[in-house]
TrEMBL record:
Predominant place of localization: membrane
Membrane topology according to the record: Multi-pass membrane protein
Transmembrane segments: 54-83, 95-123
Transmembrane helix found in the keyword field: yes
UniProt-recorded name of the protein: Stum, mechanosensory transduction mediator homolog
Location of this chain's protein in the cell: Membrane
Region (Disordered): 1-33
CC terms in the record's Gene Ontology section: membrane
Transmembrane keyword on record: yes
InterPro entries: SPEC3/Stum (IPR026673)
UniProt keywords, alphabetically: Membrane, Transmembrane, Transmembrane helix
Pfam families recorded: Spec3
Length: 133
């Protein structure tokens, strides 16, 4: 939080590598507002999405768009080939592989009622977002 100290305002500057921005925590910004730091908590399936090379992520998005679950199934094998994931350090490569296979199966089985198809497209978009960072 910003504190007044002898007439000058001091605060801690926080940097967030994911956003590439610097802001004074709890202090006023140029527009007069207050910066609030928000972190997204991901579930195990979401945290298991691998970070792949950008062209492969785009191919998986394309496959997920037209054949729900196929791109997610292929991305599961990239974990075995060395793609990184947020969950590997906690659960291991084998568990992350099976979580991705489970996500692909959920997408395939629920594609009939459109839920899996929409989930599959969002999954592919997340792959592309992770690859671009």
């Amino acid at each position: 939080m910003a504190q007044k100290d002898g007439g000058t305002e001091q605060g801690r500057v926080k940097t967030d590598d994911n956003l590439g921005t610097k802001a004074m925590s709890g202090g006023p910004t140029a527009g007069g507002g207050v910066v609030v730091e928000v972190r997204e908590k991901k579930g195990p399936l979401r945290a298991a999405i691998p970070t792949m090379p950008f062209p492969l992520a785009v191919i998986c998005l394309f496959l997920n768009t037209f054949i729900p679950g196929l791109g997610t199934f292929i991305s599961a094998f990239t974990v075995l080939c060395g793609a990184r994931s947020e969950l590997i350090s906690e659960r291991g490569v084998c568990c992350v592989f099976w979580l991705n296979v489970a996500a692909a199966l959920i997408q395939i089985l629920t594609a009939v009622i459109m839920v899996g198809w929409i989930m599959s497209i969002f999954w592919g978009m997340d792959m592309v977002i992770l690859a671009s960072q």
